[in-house]
Specification:
Layout lengths: L1 E3 L5 E3 L6 H32 L3 H29 L23 E4 L3 H7 L7 H15 L5 H21 L9 E5 L6 E4 L2 H21 L6 H24 L10 H26 L5 H25 L2 H4 L4 H28 L7 H14 L9 H6 L1 H28 L1 H4 L2 H21 L52 E2 L3 E5 L8 E4 L4 E6 L13 E6 L2 E2 L5 H9 L6 E10 L2 H19 L4 H11 L20 H6 L10 H4 L1 E2 L1
Helix pairs in contact: 1-2, 4-5, 5-6, 6-7, 7-8, 8-9, 9-11, 9-12, 11-14, 11-16, 14-16, 18-19
Length: 658
């Protein structure tokens, strides 16, 4: 079942006893058992290496064999669960021969001490924000299989940008552990880096797209188009992850695995394209059948490429046997279909008795359809001779039957594939159709040896696109925005403890110069004034008379200062000690210039040039852990904004002395 709360967080109720939730419960139970067995194996291996007693070594070796056997059984059980695709499809979805990636359950141990230690504020004041974050994270663990679930994952992914800036510093370890399970083996991985959390969420975005694509009704063109879009976006998510993250702690997020997943998604797109062409091809023209043959050959080729990727050394022992078998079955099946449609074009559809141009076009299409020239007469002569066409068509059918039988043989070797009734029906029906067609063309007086039919040249009229994720479509607000603007109040900045300074309102004003917005900066202190006793140049005003003003505009802070009573005003300030190196130097330089500007009005042009340079400061990359250098400063950072953009955009209007 699905659940929606007041925060508009949509996720599946983990306690709801639906078929899919039961499946997820079983996967979670198996993951926990695998985790337990892995710990036992690690302990046994350490004991085996540490002991010198031969009897103990024999006992430990025996235990290790039992543990490894249990692990293998658990992984096979998990593989069988990963092949239970029916619960992710609609009742009308007739094509079960699709691959879907399952989301990995996760667990986080949050820390609240950082708010108190780093920001100097009581963490209980932010209980609401912490609760909202944890509810968002809990909901994204079980997203609904639709657009709302995708938006939920992207919302959390975008929030991780703000969490990175707020709480994760290179100088201090936060002590937060992110636990995820490998999507195929169930082996747990634990990391402290937030980038691991980002990558895992991004992987689940791609996995969710595969499930959305698998549940589409592909008996109609509208459903096929939705499936194509979903699989292309899944390929984009996996490809984005491959290009932007490295040193993955689990195999499912490694570069070879992600490359395999991208190719697998594109192969399913190509299969959907073929299905749409078979639905929309109404005429039985000669060239239309040749087009179907080439499209089927294209599907076979892309699945063959996926199979080669799956059999590489690193992937060979990782990818489930049912996946490798399915890919091989599809490659053989669609290669058989390509020969079948070529035979149908030769034997059932004569050339139109039209003009010479149409005959030349058909002859050109027929020649391009074959990857090589068959032995015997030229292809142009074959087209004009019905008997030669029959013999070449019979040769294509012979190859089609051989390919069908190979697909059925591979299918019979996999226990999981044998349980897929729809797949069994499709393979049997197409095999019987090719056999029946071959029987029609077979004659008793055929004593000539059947020539070997050439392979069909693969070609497609719609190449798959890799659609990268567009995170800007989901707008988010920083959950912890009450901590203050990220330009100052971030994890990479260090400042002294908050000071409360009481300023008395006397003739001549308070004796300070203010500048900027959110937060307002003390740009200068008049020597000998009342403000000199407590304020320093470069302080940020965070509260006036106990009222928070981290996000206040310049005019609002000025109004609060001017409206104070005769007894004076209490100003809470903080002093920035260190920041990002370039930005820190820029702040100091701008502060010094501000005092000069308050005395020398002829420096306006210099200040304008300085501000133009400040705007060019780039922010830290969103994916700053193990991010590949070639992608630093990419569109994600630009969309979400600069974390260190100084809010001094209108100095000329907001700087004043009070």
């Amino acid at each position: 079942g699905f659940k929606k709360n007041l925060f508009c967080l949509t996720g599946c109720d983990p306690l709801a006893q639906t078929q899919r939730s039961k499946l997820q419960h079983r996967r979670a139970r198996i993951n926990q058992q695998i985790n337990k067995e892995m710990r036992m194996r690690t302990g046994a291996e350490n004991l085996f290496r540490a002991t010198t007693n031969n009897k103990v070594k024999e006992t430990v070796a025996l235990e290790l064999s039992f543990v490894n056997s249990n692990l293998q059984l658990l992984k096979e059980e998990l593989e069988e669960l990963n092949s239970s695709m029916d619960v992710y499809q609609t009742d009308r979805c007739t094509n079960a021969c699709v691959f879907i990636i399952f989301l990995s359950p996760c667990l986080c141990l949050p820390s609240q001490d950082f708010i108190c230690e780093h920001y100097g504020e009581d963490s209980f004041l932010y209980d609401k924000e912490i609760k909202e974050l944890m509810e968002l994270r809990q909901a994204m663990r079980t997203p609904s299989r639709n657009q709302a679930g995708l938006e939920l994952l992207m919302e959390y992914y975008n929030q991780l940008y703000y969490l990175d800036q707020r709480f994760f510093s290179a100088q201090k370890n936060l002590g937060v552990h992110f636990h995820w399970y490998d999507s195929l083996t169930g082996v747990p991985s634990c990391q402290r880096a937030l980038a691991f959390e980002k990558g895992s969420v991004l992987f689940n975005i791609g996995a969710l797209y595969t499930q959305i694509g698998a549940r589409q009704d592909r008996s109609a063109t509208a459903g096929i188009d939705r499936a194509i879009d979903a699989f292309q976006r899944a390929a984009g998510a996996f490809n984005y992850l491959k290009e932007n993250f490295s040193n993955a702690p689990s195999l499912d997020m490694s570069s070879p695995s992600l490359c395999m997943l991208v190719r697998l998604m594109l192969a399913q797109v190509q299969e959907c394209v073929f299905e749409r062409i078979t639905l929309t091809t109404q005429d039985t023209h000669f060239t239309s059948q040749l087009r179907l043959a080439q499209e089927a050959a294209r599907v076979s080729d892309v699945y063959l490429l996926v199979q080669q990727t799956m059999t590489q050394p690193l992937m060979k022992d990782y990818v489930p046997f049912s996946w490798v078998s399915m890919v091989q079955v599809k490659s053989e099946h669609f290669r058989a279909l390509s020969h079948y449609y070529a035979a149908v074009a030769l034997c059932d559809h004569m050339l139109l008795a039209g003009g010479e141009e149409e005959e030349e076009e058909a002859e050109k299409a027929f020649i391009q359809c074959h990857a090589s020239v068959p032995a015997g007469p030229q292809l142009s002569q074959v087209l004009r001779d019905p008997e030669k066409r029959r013999k070449l068509g019979k040769a294509h059918l012979r190859r089609a039957v051989i390919r069908h039988e190979e697909a059925m043989r591979v299918h019979s070797l996999c226990k999981i594939l044998r349980k897929m009734d729809i797949l069994q029906d499709v393979l049997s029906a197409t095999h019987k159709r090719s056999l029946d067609k071959y029987s029609e063309l077979d004659r008793e007086d055929d004593f000539d040896e059947i020539a070997e039919a050439p392979e069909i040249q693969s070609h497609t009229h719609q190449k798959p696109d890799i659609i990268p994720p567009n995170f800007s479509t989901v707008k988010v607000t920083d959950i912890f925005q009450r901590l203050g603007p990220l330009s100052v109040f971030c994890a990479r900045a260090r400042w002294g403890p908050m000071r409360v300074i009481c300023l008395n309102k006397r003739e001549g004003g308070l004796g300070l110069t203010l500048r900027g917005d959110s937060p307002v900066l003390v740009a200068g202190v008049v020597p000998g004034g009342w403000a000199e006793a407590g304020l320093r140049e470069g302080d940020y005003i965070v509260a006036v008379d106990g009222k928070d003003c981290k996000w206040a505009k310049h005019g609002e802070v000025v109004h609060m200062l001017k409206s104070c009573s005769d007894r004076g005003v209490e100003i809470s300030v903080v002093t920035l000690h260190s920041h990002d190196t370039q930005v820190n130097m820029l702040v100091v330089y701008l502060c010094r210039r501000a005092v000069m500007l308050s005395l020398c009005s002829d420096k306006e042009n210099t200040r304008h040039r300085l501000l133009s340079g400040a705007k060019g400061q780039s922010s830290a990359s969103l994916l700053n852990w193990n991010r590949k250098k070639k992608r630093e400063g990419s569109t994600i950072t630009k969309r979400l904004g600069s974390a260190f953009s100084l809010s001094f955009g209108s100095i000329r209007d907001t700087e004043a002395m009070y």
